[in-house]
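Researcher: I'm preparing a figure for a lab meeting and need a structural model of a single chain. I don't have an experimental structure, so a prediction will have to do for now. The sequence is pasted below. Please return the structure as C-alpha cells so I can convert it later.
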Amino acid sequence: MRSVVEDFVGGPVGSNEDLVNAGLGSLDAMSLVNTLTQQLGLEVPAGLLNDVPTIAGMVDLLDTMRGLPLEAPPLPEAVVTNGLRCLSAGNPTRGAARVYVIHGIDGDVFGEGLTFAALAPLLAPCRVSALTYDEEVRSNIESFHHMCTIYANRVTTDHDPEAPLVIIGYSFGCVIAHRVAGIGVEVDPSILCDSQRVSRNNIQL
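Model: Understood. Here is the structure written out cell by cell.
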C-alpha cells in the first residue's frame, strides 16, 4: 500500500500523514482509487480519501472490505473521432451537457484522457470526451495559442448547441481550458482542477 501511494504522491509518506497535505491532488486521488480497485479486486469507494486520508486508515478500511465483489464499470471501447476520445459508455442523453476534458502536461498528454476515466461515469448522463494530443496537433502546432485554437475548433465542431457545454482542465490543462474558453467557445462553466486561480493580470502567455 505504501509504495503505491508514494508513487502518486511522489515521495515518502508517513502512515498517519494526511495525503492531501503530502501533495496528493484530486485527480491523482481518483487514479489511486482506480489502481487500488484493480490491484486489490475490491470496489474501492471513490471518496476513500475523504473518509480515511492516511495510509493507516486506508489499510484498516480496505481490510474490512476484502472479499466483496468488484463492480467497477468497464471502460468504454477506445473510440477517437476528430481528435476526441469518448469516455462515456452508451449513447448521450438528448439535452445532457457535453463535457470536454483537457490533459495536463504529464503522462496523460499521451494517455488520450485516461486520467479522467474514473470521473466520466460519475458525470452520467453527460457525455464526456477527452481532447487528444494527437498527430494533427504535434505536426501542425506553431504556438500555444495555435494548439488552443485546434482544440477550440474540435469542441465547436462536435458540440450540440442545444446542450450545455462544460470544459474541465487538469493541471496545465487548466491553462489550455481557460484559453479555449476565450476563443469563441461559450462555456458554462469552465472547471479547473489542481490549479492556482487565474488572475486577470496573468492570462496572456
